[in-house]
Design brief:
Length: about 110
C-alpha cells in the first residue's frame, strides 16, 4: 500500500489549497470594501478552493491509506465542531457550500 500523501498529485493539490486559502484569508476582512469585480474574483477563488477541497476529500474517502482516512475523519469532526450534525455527510456539506457561493455571487452580480 502506497502512502496517500506521497503522491505527487496529492502533494500538489494540498499546496494549491494552502495557497488559495492564504490568498482568500488576506482578502476576507476587506471584502465589503472590494468593488464588484474584486468581489466576484474573491467568490471565484472560494469556488475554486471548494472544488479542490472536495476533490481531495473524495480521494481521501476512496483511499485505504490510514492517514488519509484519519484526515477525512478530521474534516468531518471539524464540520461537527462548526455546528453540523454528528452524522454529517461531507458530500452534502460541500454541495451546500456550493449553493451558498452561487447565491452570494448572484447577489453581487
Amino acid at each position: 500500500m502506497s502512502d496517500f500523501f506521497d503522491s505527487e498529485f496529492v502533494q500538489e493539490a494540498i499546496h494549491e489549497i494552502n495557497e488559495l486559502q492564504e490568498e482568500i484569508y488576506t482578502e476576507v476582512f476587506s471584502f465589503e470594501k472590494l468593488d464588484r469585480e474584486e468581489k466576484i474574483e474573491h467568490i471565484d477563488k472560494l469556488d475554486l478552493l471548494l472544488e479542490k477541497q472536495r476533490n481531495l476529500y473524495t480521494r481521501m474517502a476512496l483511499s485505504d491509506d490510514p492517514r488519509a482516512q484519519e484526515m477525512r475523519e478530521s474534516v468531518r469532526k471539524s464540520a461537527v465542531l462548526m455546528g453540523f450534525p454528528q452524522d454529517v455527510d461531507c458530500g452534502v456539506l460541500f454541495a451546500n457550500m456550493q449553493k451558498t457561493l452561487t447565491k452570494v455571487r448572484a447577489q453581487i452580480s
